[in-house]
Model the fold of this input.
Amino acid sequence: MFLRRRGFLNTLLLPALAVGGTGLGWPQAARAVTSLPDALDLQASLARAVQARRPLIVVFSLPQCPWCELARRLSYADLVREGEAVVQVEMVHGPLLRDLDGRPASGREIATRLGVRIAPTALFLGPGGREMAERMVGVGAEDFYDALVRQRLDDARHLAGW
Done:
């Protein structure tokens, strides 16, 4: 009875707690760890994707980022299971990767070169490393996130003529 009279608790706090959340604005995915293939060599990954007539989706993320985890869980992990070309770049100074030109660089350097400032951000790359669709920056409405990613994937295929 008490909770029914308290609209705040009923509409905001209780639904968050009911699904294991904190009620503090963090996405529910913060506890789980959904993995994507690491981008070790973007040039080689792009070549394989283009040969398979698929855009390469490069997901830029940060360690322990709950929004990045949410994006992986909402869309990118499913796309990997479906055979799409998806790789993840951690935006940190760390192990060197190969960038789109085959040069060694950290994930942070690659993100800076490509103008990626927010995690998560996904790029949809086609022949020559050209962006073939609008970037996915951040995570908006959870209900529509996967549909927006798939629309951009379709846009990239169409622009590339696949």
Confidence is low (pLDDT under 50) at residues 1-24. The helical segments are 2-5, 7-18, 42-51, 66-81, 107-113, 142-160. Residues 142-160 form the longest helix (19 residues).
